Amino acid sequence: MKRSMGAVEAAKAIEGGSLTAEAYIRGLLDIVAERDGPVQAFIHLDAEATLAAARTLDKGPRRGMLHGVPVGVKDIIDTHDMPTGYGSPIYDGHRPAADAACVAGLRRRGGLVFGKTVSTEFAYYTPGKTRNPHDPSRTPGGSSSGSAAAVGAGMVPLAFGTQTAGSIIRPASFCGVVGYKPSFGTINTAGVKPFGMSLDTIGGFAGSVADIAFLVGALSGHDFLSGLDKPAAPRIGLCRTPQWPDVEAGTEAAFAEAETRLAKGLAPITLPAIFDDLAVEQVSVMAYEAAAAYASENLYHADRLSDHIRDLLAKGDTVDGVAYRAILGKAARARMALAEAMDGLDVLLVPAAPGEAPVGMATGNSVFNRMWTLLGVPCVTVPGLTGPAGLPVGLQLIGRPGEDARTLAAAAWLEAQLRG
Question: Could you tell me the CATH number of the domain that includes residue 370?
Fold first, then answer.
């Protein structure tokens, strides 16, 4: 699917005077008018307000690295000047008094909020209206459904997502875009509706590794772009993970193709036994934390919660604090075991999703993501392969906690190999 000018390129053009923010926004709005009908990526988009904000930027001094760059904002993230409904009827028409920290940081650096993108209910499993831009009969994934689909359809160069289980990595694979979940805590989550306090992570989607590195680097104060233009070949561990029995034909074929293309740079790796149950145990942590985070909604608005949410909150009430802390302790030990298993390697290559986007609106299985989110490691979906139905299948790269720059550099290298 043809994309508009990317974020890094647009930022340079706006800074150099060969492009205005208003002209860039007008071009994107034309693409939205052409493509969003069947996709329905946006829950709120005020074209005139966005154009007015762009004109204000064009008339004033350069505010920062993101000057004139538009970003879609997932509707789980507060915006003071736009409705933020968290994907739930409980919050229809809700207008927060302040921006989330990531939105305020975006605006302070000259970035533009290009509408609110559809989220599943409270960033969990109950889907919204968004459909896959490559096949509207299929899911875009979730919970960052609208953000992944908007970037996948070329309607916006960047979009924020959040991940508590697999809500960035999986939809990026389904929609054929780059998805980046940074190391836990890289971007402040203030103003994001909480779900799992030890899991919730802000990241995003882009058409290229460089574009998402540009956004997250600007917001977190890291230089993630250096070296991405000509990245060195990384040392990659090929890891099928304990969840491999859940793999489908699309991902199995993608892994086989990756093994063929990258044979010289791959080292097979098997994770130690401590990893075997982490994907299941992540659900217990998520349920325990969500039961506390949504106690008020469950107490006063239970009839307006989906069965998915009610079931998870009920599960959370069965997890005691001792068991919860034991899982977090095990996760800490697993992080140390991961460092040992990755000795001599830069990243692991693992599945991003079981396969291609499923038919229907159910958002898919996060089985290949939950363990990594529990560990707080950087994860990047790199697109470029397709499954039996001709739909996108991404590959996921995993880095050590805090080694985001190295992980992004490896992702840029893999991106070049898959596109070449």
Answer: 3.40.190
Q: Are 303 and 88 in contact (CB under 8 A)?
A: no
Asked if the structure places residue 227 within a domain, the reply is no
The total of other beta-carbon atoms located within 10 Å of residue 128's CB is 23
Q: How many domains does the chain have?
A: 3
| Residue of 4, 74, 116, 144 marked active site | 74
Q: Does residue 229 form part of some domain?
A: no
Q: Which of 143, 173, 183, 208 is catalytic?
A: 143
Using the predicted structure, report yes or no on whether residue 2 has a pLDDT greater than 70.
Answer: no
CA distance 240 to 343: 17
The yes-or-no verdict on residue 3 having pLDDT over 90 is no
Q: Are residues 136 and 53 in the same domain?
A: yes
pLDDT in tens, 47-76: 999 999 999 999 999 999 999 999 999 999
Query: Per-residue pLDDT tens for 397-415?
Result: 999 999 999 999 999 999 9
- What's the pLDDT at 1? 59
Whether residue 147 lies in the annotated active site: no
Model confidence over 319-350: pLDDT tens digits?
Answer: 999 999 999 999 999 999 999 999 999 999 99
Give the position of tokens 């998870």.
312
The boundaries of the domain holding residue 378 are: 236-276+327-419
**Do 22 and 166 sit in the same domain of this protein?**
yes
Catalytic, 143? Answer yes
* Of 379, 274, 290, 272, the residue nearest 327 (C-alpha): 274
Residue closest to 395 by CA, chosen among 278, 257, 224: 257
Note whether 290 and 270 are same-domain residues. Answer: no
Residue 231 phi, psi (nearest 5): -70, 145
Distances (CA, A) of 137 to 39, 215, 245, 317: 10, 31, 26, 36
Q: 5: closest CA among 211, 146, 176?
A: 211
Residues 194 and 256 in one domain: no
pLDDT, tens digit (0-9, with 9 covering 90-100), for 273-290: 999 999 999 999 999 999
Q: Is 167 a catalytic residue?
A: yes
For residue 293 the two structure tokens come to 């985070």
Q: What is this structure's pTM?
A: 0.98
Check 119, 167, 183, 208 and give the catalytic one. Answer: 167
Q: Which tokens go with 26?
A: 């007008």
